[in-house]
Task: structure prediction
Amino acid sequence: MRLSGRSRHRVGLVAVLALLLAACGGGGGSLGGGESDGAADDDRTDGEAQDQQDQEEDEEERGTLPYDETIEVFVADLQVYWAELMPEVYGEEYEPIPEENLIAFERGDPDVECGGVEISYDELEGNAFYCDTDDLIVWDNDQLFPELYDRYGGFVIGLTLAHEWGHAIQARVGVLEEDIVVEQMADCSAGAWVQHVEAGESDEFDLDQLGTLDAALSGFLQYRDPPGYQPDQPGAHGSAFDRVNAFQEGFEQEEERCAEYPDDPPAVVALGFGSQDDFESGGNLAYEEIFDLLITDLDAYWSDEIDDYDSIDDLEPYDVDDGDELPQCGDEDVDPDQYEETAFYCAEDHFIAWDDEYLEDLYDATGDLGPAVLLANAYSSAVQAALEVEGERREIGLQADCLSGSWVGSVPPIGPRDEAEIFLSPGDLDEVVQALLLEGGAALDDIEPGNEDVIAGVSRGTDEGTDGGGDEGDETDDGDEGDEGNEQREDAASAFERVQTFRTGFFDGVDSCLDLVE
Result:
């Protein structure tokens, strides 16, 4: 993101962990660019109880299937999946990839031959690829897969293999171009396979053995093109925003949509740096400089879009550790725990406030559009209040994400607003994806009951959208409070769903968001 041409400053976003992995020789494609609940012994220390809780949460995110077994069940499922699907979609029988052609490559192993070219481990390191001339899928079994598994769980291994299997199907049906379309088609095929898994159609494993899709996407999307890399450049796989789109199309429309990609590819959002200075600096303004621009632009956008919207003049960044200075919303008691790691709109007193330290941490982790999207969701809550939107917590939160997407989609050079205060720069949309993945993890983490409403984008000072959740002043015992918190977390939308809905607003505008809550 950078300032409009009416200002001398520029702001842009630098994607984090952007790793471009070039395709290997021989055709095909590469991976790409805390209290005890009483269930255990009562004489455990608080530290031991916390360690167990952390382990349980880690198993939920990463899954429980051992590494080697994870690869075995994914391979078996993908072979069966394509044997059934390929005749239906492509009208051809599926020829399985021979077991000996699935190569877990480790340092010290003999070179792998692909199209007459010898490939050493050093050349493969950190990558996975499909070789169409020899019908091979090869992956780094020394570093890449084990490290992805340890950090993100088993599901990310399945996503990666499903992407490479997508290239194998392309070779079988004659889609042999080497460009971004085939990479997006492989991402689409991976999404279609995940839909099959999510639907419980695999006989090889249970979904709860694999970890979460959010964690898997966080790992998979590390392998995206760096900011400013153009779709027509060699080895392009797409930004995280574009790769999520292709994945989403496969997930929602299944392989039939992926098969259309050679003739009807999805839209790709290509953004270039505005200047050499913009490129060299990464384009980021200092954290404290971005808010005046964002606030002015968000207020102007919603004033134009919604007749009943009332401009917000009261904006209150706060320090959670300074309990005496926390902004009070209506008659609510001020509980510092409910002010941590959030930005919110107070409907009763018509102000927006945010945890300044948290947004700065998010800025450091993602760039300026990371905290911007949280601030935008607070404005979306103000819009929902103006429109008197009511609904389930989940629906309200997703609509807020969609409304924020409509704002970002209106920003030049993608959007039409000539008077916008800001312009999008390379990496901006990837920052949104990363922020929602991070924010989704926070929303599902150990949050005090009641705080989920704020994180999901529901305004405070109103009962709208809470679906009858307990009032903050209700007196419950610790067990009941914990159960309520678990139910609210289970009811929260996943980060993947949030990204999907943000994209809807980005491409289809405000009206598409208003239709989400009836």
Remarks:
- Confidence is low (pLDDT under 50) at residues 3-27, 33-62, 441-489.
- The beta strands are 2-3, 102-105, 112-114, 117-119, 128-131, 136-140, 315-318, 343-346, 351-355, 422-423.
- Residues 284-514 form one domain.
- The longest strand covers residues 136-140.
